[in-house]
């Protein structure tokens, strides 16, 4: 019998893309909680950091999305509202949270390519939303991107 300690398994390195995807997922859940329960943001932020394993998460991005969406709620809603087929108040709470996060990224995080912001929002809607909500989210954010990311889209098309 050997007294040598068992080798520790090597931890897989997590990419920045995966860390950001995790941040968006946690942010969606936190924004949803804020929308439904109306808890103070600092409580929700702290609760998520304590209750979840966020070692593979871009925690700074999580916090920025949560606080940024809440702070800019009215501006975000006004930005995507023209592309809705119903009133904002009639949106499913998950769709609303996804649209707010996607809109925030399109308007405030210009370093994130518009296609990434839309695709990540669509993926969140597929995971957390109703069966066809990802198509709705895609349509709304695509129309919004045509307005708020016009130069980027035009440059991409050449």
UniProtKB/TrEMBL annotation:
Role played: Involved in transcription antitermination. Required for transcription of ribosomal RNA (rRNA) genes. Binds specifically to the boxA antiterminator sequence of the ribosomal RNA (rrn) operons.
A Gene Ontology molecular function term of the record: RNA binding
HAMAP family linked: NusB
SUPFAM superfamilies in the cross-refs: NusB-like
Keywords: RNA-binding, Transcription, Transcription antitermination, Transcription regulation
Gene Ontology CC: cytosol
Domain NusB/RsmB/TIM44: 22-145
Gene3D superfamilies listed in its UniProt record: NusB-like
An example Gene Ontology biological process: DNA-templated transcription termination
Name of the protein described by the UniProt record: Transcription antitermination protein NusB
UniProt similarity note: Belongs to the NusB family.
Organism: Marinobacterium aestuarii
Pfam annotation, one family: NusB
